[in-house]
Every structure is written in structure tokens, then in C-alpha cells.
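Renewal narrative, Specific Aim 1. Our central claim is that a sequence can be written position by position from structural information alone. The example that follows is taken directly from our test logs and has not been curated for this report. It begins with the C-alpha cells describing the chain, in the order in which they were read.
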């Protein structure tokens, strides 16, 4: 099992390390072809990548945080993430067939 930490933000990496999530493969972007069954992927991926991760038999955990508008798009420290209730939430996604209208 490989732990994948998908982020380009130092504050997020520090926040994850404080929770014992370190020593994994740190990547700024994820290619689903790298993922194998049993892997653990942590990040803020778009739904189509979450579905690809899940289809390969891996577990996905989303770094969720509710930010006020003035903090969006800025680099955040681990302390700022903590103050705003950052948490890891497991998600499963699956692409379904298109609906005809």
C-alpha cells in the first residue's frame, strides 16, 4: 500500500504531518495510472479523479475545510487550516452512464 499526498501547499503538508500522515509519496498532481489497489490517496481532487482512484481499488480521503471568501485562493498555514476546522473525509465516487434527455 502506498500513501499518496496530493498537494502543492506546504501548510496542507504540515497539517497532514501533525496527524501522522507523512512518509508517503508527495505529488502536486496525480496520474490515476500510478494508483494500485489498496493505496490511500489524500488531497483535494476533482470528482473525475476521485472516481478513477476508486475504480483502481484505492481509498480516497478529501482534505475538507470551510473557508471564508477572503481566505480563498491564498496560501494557508497548518494553523489556519486548523482554526477553520480542516478534516479528512473519506469519499467514494463512480462514473455512471450518461442520462439521455
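The sequence written for that structure reads:
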Amino acid at each position: 500500500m502506498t500513501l499518496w499526498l496530493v498537494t502543492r501547499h506546504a501548510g496542507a503538508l504540515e497539517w497532514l504531518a501533525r496527524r501522522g500522515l507523512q512518509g508517503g509519496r508527495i505529488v502536486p498532481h496525480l496520474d490515476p495510472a500510478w494508483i494500485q489497489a489498496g493505496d490511500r490517496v489524500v488531497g483535494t481532487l476533482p470528482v473525475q479523479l476521485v472516481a478513477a482512484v476508486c475504480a483502481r481499488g484505492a481509498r480516497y480521503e478529501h482534505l475538507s475545510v470551510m473557508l471564508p471568501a477572503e481566505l480563498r485562493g491564498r496560501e494557508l498555514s497548518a494553523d489556519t487550516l486548523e482554526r477553520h476546522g480542516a478534516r479528512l473525509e473519506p469519499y467514494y465516487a463512480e462514473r455512471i452512464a450518461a442520462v439521455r434527455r
